Structures are given as structure tokens and as C-alpha cells.
């Protein structure tokens, strides 16, 4: 915003001259840096576009005759990367389920739906639609077990499930930790600090492998849902501290005034404390969502066929083993699209709320 204002006030050429060519040393450094960036850009552009092979019509042999990228592996294996082990004839369900999640996320970002009731309806309804599309067994759709889920749809399912379970749990943790009863606040603090002191991979391994040995068969459940619970607990422990920090930023006089007016505890929390706490904690909350989405890749360690494992399988076959860079680049672009969108939306919310405060 500051640079834009300077350009409007002084002009583009004047800003460039002052920032990059104000002295001889700055001019030399700027020219060398621009030349290096141009060389890197041209090298990547030539590798990724000009000299690349995009179609798998010629097979792997066509890629070995050029120095460019072999995007033919994506053309040949994109279904495996995006859908994993999901039945081929039912891929439309997996793709439609991912579109439902994207639509659910977009609706959640529209200010018109920023109320507890509307957000709950959107997320619960969207998640239920996603689950029944993936699982099937209704409306004539064949049943597909969770063991056959994979690729991008499994990554999205783990992320959405973690957020859907972890966010309410984090609010409960934050409220319990600020309880006026010492034994409740201290016990909750012990749980939160214990979970935060452990690596996520340790928690996922414990829920996936160790927990069935200490629970009866009827209570152990499917491994996928145990992993989601472990991920949600880890998310809730960190998010609870973020929310509690936001609560501490709310002036105490507001809650005391609400008590004096006879407003009940639930209404005070729902209408006064939490809205302001989430507003103060917005940047850290967006960052926590970004971290959670990236950490879904850890489930590959405990045997799930998410998008990273699907990518490994895509180039793991003998004829495509040389194209691992292209496969990982494609997966990185998918992660970038999700994470960059979240971060830009977080920046938009910060600007919007700053404007509203003036």
C-alpha cells in the first residue's frame, strides 16, 4: 500500500530511480541482481514451457530426447495423483467432493455468512456432502471404503475434518483454561502444554498404532478417524492458546459491564468475548490453518495414500522414475494454490477490519 501511494504521488520512474539507482553502488547492485533474476527466470521458463514435453503420446522416450520438463508424466498419471486408489469409474465423485469443499470454503469467506449459525450450516452440510460422495452407499452410488480413498481428496478430507473437530475443541479448551476454578484451569493447561510439547508425528503415530492396543475393539474405530482425532487435538491445543491470547486483548471492563447488566455467561461469550477474540487472533488463526493444511502430508508416514504418496506412486513405475521433479513440482503447485489463497484471504480480512476500526 505504501509503495502504491508513492508511485501515485511521485511517478513510477522516480520511485525506481530513488529506490534502486540512488548511488553508483546501488545501481551496480541493482543491475547485477536484475540480470541474475532474469537469467533464473529465463532458465526456468525455458525448462518448464519452451523445451517441455506436455503430451504422453510419445511415451517416456519423448522426454528423454529433450532437456526440458517432462509434463507428460502428469498427463499420464494425473488421475493417480489426484484420486489415488479410488475406483477409476467413480473418480467423478472424488472430484465433485473436492469442488464441494472449495465451494464451502468460498461461502465461508463471504461476509454475508459470517454468523455462527450460517457457518455451522455451511461446514456441517458441506462436510456431510463431501463424506457421502466419497463413501457412497446411498442414491445408488457404490460403497467405497476409506482404505481406497487417496490423493487430493484424502488430503482435503483430513484437513477439513481436523478443522471441523479442532476449532470447537479449541474454543472449549480456551474457555476452560480461563475458568475461575483453579483445578479446571490448571488441568486444561496441563493437557494443552503436554500436547504442544510433542511433535505432531508422535501424536499421529500414537493414535494410529499405539491406541488400538489400549482400547477395546469396539472403541478403537478406523485408523483414519483416529488419525483425524489426533490431528484435531494437536490443532486444538495450539489454536486454544491463540484464542486465549485474543481473549486477553479484550478489555476486562466489557465483560464486567455485561455481568452487571445481568447478561448470561453463554451470551457474554458468544456475543461479546469470542467475536473480539477472533478478530484479534485472526492473523495467527489463518497461519494455523495454513500450517495444518501443509502438515496433512505427514500421514504418509503412517501408511495413508494422500497426495504426496500418490505422487510417489505416479513416478515410481519403471518408465517414469526419471520424472520425479515434475511430479513434485505439480504437487507443490497444488499446495501453493491452497496455501497462497488462504494467506491472501487472511491479508484481505486484516485490511477490511482495519478499515472498519477507523
From TrEMBL:
The keyword Membrane applies. The keyword Transport applies. InterPro entries: AA_ABC_transptr_permease_3TM, ArtM/GltK/GlnP/TcyL/YhdX-like, MetI-like, MetI-like_sf. Pfam families: BPD_transp_1 (PF00528). Keywords: Cell membrane, Membrane, Transmembrane, Transmembrane helix, Transport. It is a multi-pass membrane protein. GO terms for cellular component: ATP-binding cassette (ABC) transporter complex. Residues 152-346 form the ABC transmembrane type-1 domain. GO terms for molecular function: transmembrane transporter activity. The chain crosses the membrane at residues 20-42, 92-114, 121-144, 156-176, 197-218, 224-243, 298-315, 321-343. Belongs to the binding-protein-dependent transport system permease family. HisMQ subfamily. PANTHER family: INNER MEMBRANE AMINO-ACID ABC TRANSPORTER PERMEASE PROTEIN YHDY, MEMBRANE COMPONENT OF AMINO ACID ABC TRANSPORTER. This is Amino acid ABC transporter permease. It comes from Roseovarius spongiae.
Amino acid at each position: 500500500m505504501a509503495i502504491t501511494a508513492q508511485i501515485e504521488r511521485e511517478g513510477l520512474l522516480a520511485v525506481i530511480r530513488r529506490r534502486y539507482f540512488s548511488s553508483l553502488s546501488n545501481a551496480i547492485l541493482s543491475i547485477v541482481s536484475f540480470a541474475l533474476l532474469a537469467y533464473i527466470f529465463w532458465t526456468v521458463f525455458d525448462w518448464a514451457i519452451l523445451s517441455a514435453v506436455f503430451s504422453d503420446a510419445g511415451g517416456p522416450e519423448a522426454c528423454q530426447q529433450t532437456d526440458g520438463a517432462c509434463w507428460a508424466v502428469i498427463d499420464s498419471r494425473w488421475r493417480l495423483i489426484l484420486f489415488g486408489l479410488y475406483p477409476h469409474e467413480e473418480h467423478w465423485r472424488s472430484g465433485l467432493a473436492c469442488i464441494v469443499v472449495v465451494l464451502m470454503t468460498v461461502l465461508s469467506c463471504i461476509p454475508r455468512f459470517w454468523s455462527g449459525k450460517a457457518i455451522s450450516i455451511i461446514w456441517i452440510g458441506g462436510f456431510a456432502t463431501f463424506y457421502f460422495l466419497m463413501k457412497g452407499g446411498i442414491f445408488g452410488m457404490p460403497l467405497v471404503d476409506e482404505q481406497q480413498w487417496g490423493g487430493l481428496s484424502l488430503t482435503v478430507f483430513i484437513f477439513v475434518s481436523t478443522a471441523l473437530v479442532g476449532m470447537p475443541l479449541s474454543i472449549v479448551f480456551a474457555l476452560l483454561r480461563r475458568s475461575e476454578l483453579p483445578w479446571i484451569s490448571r488441568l486444561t493447561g496441563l493437557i494443552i502444554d503436554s500436547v504442544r510439547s510433542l511433535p505432531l508425528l508422535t501424536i499421529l503415530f500414537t493414535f494410529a498404532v499405539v491406541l488400538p492396543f489400549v482400547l477395546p475393539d469396539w472403541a478403537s474405530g478406523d485408523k483414519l478417524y483416529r488419525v483425524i482425532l489426533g490431528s484435531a487435538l494437536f490443532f486444538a491445543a495450539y489454536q486454544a492458546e491463540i484464542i486465549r491470547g485474543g481473549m486477553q486483548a479484550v478489555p476486562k471492563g466489557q465483560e464486567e459491564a455485561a455481568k452487571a447488566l445481568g447478561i448470561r455467561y453463554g451470551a457474554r461469550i458468544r456475543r461479546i468475548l469470542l467475536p473480539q477474540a477472533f478478530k484479534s487472533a485472526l492473523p495467527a488463526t489463518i497461519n494455523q490453518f495454513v500450517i495444518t493444511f501443509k502438515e496433512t502430508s505427514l500421514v504418509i508416514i503412517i501408511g495413508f495414500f494422500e497426495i504426496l504418496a500418490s505422487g510417489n506412486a505416479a513416478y515410481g513405475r519403471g518408465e517414469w522414475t526419471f520424472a520425479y521433479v515434475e511430479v513434485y513440482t505439480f504437487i507443490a503447485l497444488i499446495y501453493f494454490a491452497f496455501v497462497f489463497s488462504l494467506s491472501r484471504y487472511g491479508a484481505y480480512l486484516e485490511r477490511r477490519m482495519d478499515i472498519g476500526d477507523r
